[in-house]
């Protein structure tokens, strides 16, 4: 099993191809760490943000409702794109949020995965021999 832990914030999803190749030989679980504060812009007036790669500074008018709504829509769309890319790559996907109990989320994921595997191995009700499963 290969576990990839990331925030998957990059808009460059070129990792999908490599992950797909990895999933061809291994069971892959992608654990996405999500900080809800990165999904919405707070209304704090003018906000100076710095691009950590280039050092460029941009002043963002967070009091603009239109800008905050646009940012939230773009963040939600990106989360959906990441989820779709992980599914296409054949990786399991566990989302852990910084504002929730990670242990509970992991337990739920494991239980759901086990139930899913068990259901896949169990024949459908109609295919069971008479008297089975009662």
Attribute tags:
two-stranded antiparallel ribbon; disordered C terminus; 3-stranded parallel β-sheet; single chain; 3 helices; 134 residues; alpha/beta
Structure description:
The protein has 134 residues and is α/β, with parallel strands linked by helices. The chain has one domain. It is 40% helix and 21% strand. The protein has three helices and five strands. Strands 1-2-5 form a three-stranded parallel β-sheet. A two-stranded antiparallel sheet has the order 3-4. Helix 1 packs parallel to helix 2.
Percent of residues in helices:
40-55%
The share of residues in extended strands comes to 15-25%
Q: What characteristic shape results from the CA principal axes?
A: globular
Strand order of the largest sheet: 1-2-5
Number of beta-strand segments: 5
How far apart lie the N and C ends? 36 Å
| Main sheet record | 3 strands, parallel
Order of helices and strands: EHEEEHEH
Structural class: alpha/beta
Q: What is the total number of structural domains?
A: 1
Mean pLDDT: 85
Low-confidence stretches: 118-134
SSE diagram, text form:
Blueprint: E1 2-6, H1 15-23, E2 28-34, E3 46-50, E4 57-61, H2 65-89, E5 92-97, H3 102-121
Parallel strand pairs: 1-2, 2-5
Antiparallel strand pairs: 3-4
